[in-house]
Amino acid sequence: MTVQSKENYEVLLTREFNAPRELVFKVWTEPDHFGKWWGPKGFSLEISRMDVRPGGLFLGCQKSPDGMSMWGKFVYQEVIAPEKLVYVQSFSDEEGNTIRAPFNPNWPLEIINILTFAEENGKTTVTFIGGPLNASEEEQAAFDAMKPMVKQGFAGTFEQLEQYLASQQ
């Protein structure tokens, strides 16, 4: 996995999966699959809603091993199957109203995530670009301070994705 920062975006992760692009895209966009691998290691994900189309909404609750719950949402901006997903990610309440992150009052309200899926020789490379959207100086500083943890969290999520994809073939 490649992890680096560029000036035009905040976080860049690139990972190759030993699976066809259609399958990789499917497990990112169907709730029966997505809920089985998404999120930090040890957390579970309960999906309340998942409507993957421009303007559609994902709403889910992650639960930590010690029982802490955090709701989050994605608002899909662009969906080009099986090539690209663009969504704005936020913390939310159970109804999908955007709220502040429970761990930091200065965490950006919105993070834009852009995923591309490219296949070569039966393997799929996922490129994940993300960063704050319309962030204040305080929000940007909070994101910058947590960037190593964000990268580490996504690295773990991608490991879970790799294991899940292996179980689907």
TrEMBL record:
Domain (Activator of Hsp90 ATPase homologue 1/2-like C-terminal): residue spans on this chain: 18-165
Family: Belongs to the AHA1 family.
Name of the protein in its database record: SRPBCC domain-containing protein
